[in-house]
Structures are given as structure tokens and as C-alpha cells.
Fold D-arabinono-1,4-lactone oxidase.
Amino acid sequence: MPERAPLHNWAGNVAFSPVSFATPTTLDEARAVVAGADRVRVLGSGHSFNAIAASEGVMLSLAGMEPFAELDILKGTVRASGWLTYAELSAAVHRAGFALHNMASLPHISVAGSIATGTHGSGDRNGNLATAVAAIEFIGPDGELRTVRRGEEDFAGSVVHLGALGVVHSVTLDLLPAFEMRQYVYDGLGLDAVLANFDELTGSAYSTSLFTPWGADPRFQFWVKQRTKDQTHPFPPSSRYGAPLADGPRHPVPGVDPAACTVQQGQTGPWHERLPHFRPEFTPSSGDEIQSEYLIGRDDAVAALEALAGIGERLGSVLQICEVRTMAADDLWLSPAFERDTVGLHFTWTSDDAAVRPVVGALEAALEPFSARPHWGKLFTIPMNEIGSRYRRMGDFAKLRARVDPEGKFMNGFSAGLFDTAGS
């Protein structure tokens, strides 16, 4: 047998070396793989920047199985295969006259992987993507199917699950009626204006984002995604706190061609073509980057931004762009927005790992007073026991995991480091 090349994540900064790589084409085949494995993890779209998906045993991809998206018009839900991307699912949902409540900046990511890690879009009143889940169906360690529904005892602990409760076969998501949106960008918003008007800025539209490369004198792009039915005036303000409307389309990273970005400048379009920052038909970058994200309580947002400004030049030395987004609190045990309205501070670094890691350490030190929760799928250096202490229900999740998977079939080094500290 020829030696197989190692598997890598999307960015290429993490290599996977499983004992075997399984690509079933039917549900029965997938169930058999899971039942027969000693250890198994699922590889989704590969858009993680740490070893959360790594497997010391079998690595499983469901991408070869026939996808499905089954709408229940009366209930206003869709039951969909977990390996679908949000681009694929949102297009199908829109054709039926419905919408998802939110999307992440990239529509290329898988539904199951995004939910499992608490991935989010933006909007003061919008929960992260996992909050749309009404039911989740796992392939358990014995290969049997197990469905957990909203209202059941284990539900709040099962949605954001880090891959530790089984292989997701399907998810059922709440839907909204389809809606149209307009997107605007403002250039050159000053740090003082952001700090003084943070709540007004982020609350001014259905979804907003602030982008900055930091540095000595940080300036922000302000992205505004407005539902047309919420827009009370035909035209947006020509400036916001001294920042003018952009005179053309923009990419979040200054100087980069905006061709891959969703349509801006107030052109009306469907929700799934405005909520993401990037179009699904484009690869937004080559993956030549590393990403980190830290999620803090809404009440700490201004103080945290001031702390980042204090190390702005150091951040800027290895940073492509930083994005600031907001989301509503939820009750999902391992969600980074658990029990607090949340602000996400996202960092797209250069791909120089040796240069980036010391800056990540300085960033984490600056955010230490705010009990920042790292995104589960991004690069961070905070010890696992410290991360676990920032989730009130971590011990309960460890007990749930041990009950559902007593032999630890779905564990790997990443999850063992987290759950062992929680007493599993």
C-alpha cells in the first residue's frame, strides 16, 4: 500500500495522523464504522485551527453520503444532514421561502461542525448558530441513532458538544420567513468613537461588524447588515461619527480585492447573500492564515477594547485583521455565550506560527481580567483547566459525556485535556 499523505486542516497548520480514514456512503456504513472503532472523530469542513478534530483512531468523513434537507412547513423547521455546508443549506431553505436566523462570516463551513463549537454570526439580539437547533441526532458509540430534542433533560448540554457525544447525522433547525437585506460599509471610524458609542453602533442593525488591523492609531471599518423591513429611511446616514460611507465595495482586510465579498453599497438581496461576509462561489483566501477568537461579556466590551489598544502595535505586527461582533446570551452549557450577552474578538493572523504564538500569549494576558472564553476551534494557549473553570456547567457536561460514551470512543487529546480537569 502506498503511504498516504497526512491530512491537514483548511489552513494547513494542523496535521492529522489517524490510524485510518473512513468515507462511508450510506448511514448503515457510517454506523458500522462507528460501532467497530475503538476511537473515532469526525472531520467536517476542516475549518478549525487546533486539534479539536484530531483522531488517534479512525477519522470519519460523512461528505460522501447523500445530503438531505427536509422542511416541515407547519413547524417552521428543517431537518438537514450535518455535513451540509451553510451555503448549501441556506440556498435550499431560501428556495422554500424560509431563512436561518443568522450565518457566520464564511458560508463554506459545515452545519454540524459550526454547531458543535458554538460558531456565530453577529447581532445584539441574535444567538449563535447553535441556538437555532431544535433537535440533534447522533450516531452513538454502539452505532445506534440517538436523538435529543429541545425540552429534554440533556438538550442544553448536547448541542455545543465538541464532538464528544457522538457523530452528528442530522440537525433540526428553527426557521424564519425569508427576508431581504442591505449591506453598507463605513470607512475610518476612530477608536474613540467606537468606545464612546459601542452600544449604539452594534445595536443599529440586524447584524454589525467592526474590523481593524490595530496598530498605533487603530481605525475601523463598520459593516452594517440591515433587514429592509427594519429600515425606516430610504437611505442610510452618509457618515457615522465622522466615518463616511465607503465609495466602493470593501474587503475586511484593507487593500485586498473585494470580489469574494458579499454585495455591499445598499443593494437589496436575500438574507443568505448578505449575512455572510464572503460569497460561497469564491474561496475567500488560500488558508494562509491562523485564527484566534476570544468571547467576553458584553459589559466588558469597552474595557477589553481599551486593553487591546494598549498592545495595538504588537497585535498589528502579525495581524491581518481583527473583527468585533456581538451575540445574545444562551443556555447551552458549552456555548461561549452561555449565560451572558457576548462580544467576540476575532483575530486573523499571518501564517507564521512562531511569530504569532507570543502575541497570542500577550493578547490572552490583556484579556485575563475579563474571563475570556476562547472559540473552541481556534488557536489559543490558555490551559484547559482554566478554560473549564469559565463554564459553570462543565462538570455536568463531563458527567453527561461519561454517561453517553462510557468507553470514551469519541475522546481525543483535546477533549481529554478539558474533561479530565472536570472530573470525568
Summary: The chain has twelve helices and 22 strands.
